[in-house]
């Protein structure tokens, strides 16, 4: 209800089921509406960090709260000297991303960062570096884990559940940001492509997936090859005999990450894959 009220106030609409008379409509137009929106924004940019901190552990409550920045006039950070509250909000966002692995929370965090990082907004100068540092941290976590994963695979060993869980959760976080931000400078395609290429040559594929792999044209682009290699990786069977393996298809969780990345691929290339 809180977020719905904020949205309603930001858009200047009356409560559901009510209509403003002509006189009232004229009164809330123009300068007055702008002033009320600014006052609301000042209030919520101050209380938002505390709200995010208070409900950080509750994904059902914190997810809608992350929508509040998009309904605020973020220029109040500069106009009213509220930069410290922006720093606090960005810190809470960082903590939420590192704390949660739920897709809805991560996507809401990514969209909130996107609102703050808007190039035309006053929050951009503080938010963009903070977002870049967070992605840097995630990539720095992922890179050595992938290196260890490939080395263990070459030796015929398996990663523990903890390490594999860290890989999957880090990929899930990066996928959420990939859907809302331009992460091309981090070369994530290259990192994932090297992993998928290795797994393709090491593991066997079910017959349902094998034909899909060979549909790639001789000079397929990374946009086309990645979905096919992603499917191959996700459905690659464990090399351990089935009766001894903990799970026949240990990489199925990668389908979640692949679905996030694939939505950015042009439809024509998706069909080719």
Automatic annotation (TrEMBL):
A GO molecular function held by the record: chromatin binding
Superkingdom assignment: Eukaryota
Gene Ontology cellular component terms for the protein in this record: chromatin; cohesin complex; nucleus
Domain Cohesin subunit SCC3/SA HEAT-repeats residues, every copy: 1-209
UniProt feature coiled coil, ranges: none
A Pfam match: HEAT_SCC3-SA
One biological process term in Gene Ontology: sister chromatid cohesion
InterPro entries named in the record: Cohesin_Scc3/SA (IPR039662), HEAT_SCC3-SA (IPR056396)
Family (UniProt): Belongs to the SCC3 family.
Protein name per the record: Cohesin subunit SA-2-like
Gene name of the encoded protein: LOC110582985
């Amino acid at each position: 209800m809180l977020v719905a009220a904020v949205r309603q106030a930001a858009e200047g609409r009356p409560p559901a089921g009510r209509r403003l008379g002509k006189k009232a409509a004229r009164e809330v137009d123009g300068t007055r509406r702008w002033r009320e929106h600014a006052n609301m924004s000042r209030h919520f940019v101050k209380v938002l960090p505390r709200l995010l901190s208070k409900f950080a552990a509750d994904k059902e409550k914190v997810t809608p709260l992350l929508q509040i920045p998009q309904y605020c006039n973020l220029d109040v950070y500069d106009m009213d000297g509220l930069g410290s509250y922006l720093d606090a909000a960005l810190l809470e966002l960082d903590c939420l991303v590192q704390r949660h692995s739920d897709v809805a929370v991560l996507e809401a965090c990514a969209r909130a960062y996107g609102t703050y990082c808007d190039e035309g907004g006053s929050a951009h100068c503080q938010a963009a570096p903070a977002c870049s540092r967070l992605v840097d941290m995630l990539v720095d976590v992922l890179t050595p884990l992938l290196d260890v994963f490939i080395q263990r695979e070459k030796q015929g060993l398996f990663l523990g559940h903890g390490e594999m869980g860290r890989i999957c959760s880090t990929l899930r976080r990066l996928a959420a940001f990939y859907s809302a931000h331009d992460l091309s400078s981090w070369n994530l395609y290259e990192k994932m492509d090297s992993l998928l290429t290795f797994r393709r040559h090491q593991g066997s594929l079910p017959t349902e997936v094998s034909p899909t792999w060979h549909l790639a044209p001789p000079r397929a682009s990374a946009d086309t090859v990645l979905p096919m290699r992603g499917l191959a990786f996700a459905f690659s069977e464990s090399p351990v005999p089935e009766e001894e393996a903990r799970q026949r298809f240990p990489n199925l969780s990668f389908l979640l990450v692949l679905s996030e990345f694939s939505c950015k691929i042009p439809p024509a290339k998706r069909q080719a894959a």
